[in-house]
């Protein structure tokens, strides 16, 4: 039975990554708890030997002249009867068979071990998610939306919940669908909310999808300078090339629009404007208002600009419900006033 116990610890370490040393500490605590529940004393020595695959529990009693608490004390006279080597102030040990523990004590030990396994699994899961914080992971839908609109997904590390407000508006899922999600936050146990927060609306998802699709971003030739996003509708991404021979915008779009097309497909058809970044604020603002044609940009203070566009381009520059102007302002960090002539 002891051999099977240690084999089970080996299996836990192999399959779930729970260190044997950690579980031995939890088992020691569990047996100590069981002993205390059984005897009322925690004067006990637990010996767990992984090499010999042996488990032993020793009750300890202090040798005293006058016994006050027989649960943890023994008189010198009685100790001498056990061994003439025993002396006042010493300790007498006798082995206790774990099979003699009562049902309640055994149940308490079992709960400590189960809790230890859960804590270890949670710690392992948190470590895996922390490695992938602000990264994109591919997950599989395992349960479709309930009345809250949330879906359950398998990330390969654990099952997690993608809540409704982190989903792209209007997208629908079926069990078995493969989707990409962005890891926005990882919390420690005890903190409020779920351990991991996943998102398909975060601008970081757009950034990471372009990194996956564009080798020039991966190798640092093309740099993403900023992203403004209204998930499910439109995003604007500003890019810059560190090499004058490399077209940053063209690299992101790809031949026949293949690279940007793959990103758009992953984002359920969300429109994406790729903008060439410029250190010249006026030039950057003009580009950010794409696809509208801009006649002039006058800077009014550090974070304000007055933009003139042809009259027939005014509605395009502003965009439906002001979206184009709003995203351009977010991307450039400037308040933009647009007028047509």
List the main descriptive attributes of the protein structure presented here.
about 350 residues, alpha+beta, N Utilization Substance Protein A, Chain:P, domain 4, OB fold (Dihydrolipoamide Acetyltransferase, E2P), GMP Synthetase, Chain A, domain 3, 4 domains, five-stranded antiparallel β-sheet, four-stranded mixed β-sheet, 11 helices
Summarize the topology.
Blueprint: H1 2-16, H2 20-39, E1 44-49, E2 54-64, E3 73-75, H3 76-82, E4 91-96, H4 103-131, E5 136-143, E6 151-154, E7 159-162, E8 178-186, E9 196-199, H5 203-213, H6 215-218, E10 222-230, E11 234-241, H7 248-253, H8 258-266, E12 271-276, H9 281-288, E13 296-299, E14 304-309, H10 314-318, H11 323-332, E15 335-340
Parallel strand pairs: 2-3, 11-12, 14-15
Antiparallel strand pairs: 1-2, 2-4, 5-6, 5-8, 6-7, 8-9, 10-11, 13-14
Helix pairs in contact: 2-4, 5-8, 9-11
Question: Could you explain the architecture of this structure?
Answer:
By secondary structure, this protein is an alpha+beta fold. The protein folds into 4 domains: 2-124, N Utilization Substance Protein A, Chain:P, domain 4, CATH 3.30.1480; 135-199, Nucleic acid-binding proteins (OB fold (Dihydrolipoamide Acetyltransferase, E2P)); 202-277, GMP Synthetase, Chain A, domain 3 (2-Layer Sandwich); 280-341, K homology (KH) domain (GMP Synthetase, Chain A, domain 3). Helices cover 36% and strands 28% of the residues. It has helices spanning 2-16, 20-39, 76-82, 103-131, 203-213, 215-218, 248-253, 258-266, 281-288, 314-318, 323-332; strands at 44-49, 54-64, 73-75, 91-96, 136-143, 151-154, 159-162, 178-186, 196-199, 222-230, 234-241, 271-276, 296-299, 304-309, 335-340. The strands form 4 sheets. The chain has a 5-stranded antiparallel beta sheet. Strands 1, 2, 3 and 4 form a 4-stranded mixed beta sheet that branches. Strand 6 (151-154) and strand 7 form a beta hairpin. Helix 9 runs antiparallel to helix 11 (323-332). The longest helix has 29 residues, at 103-131. It is elongated.
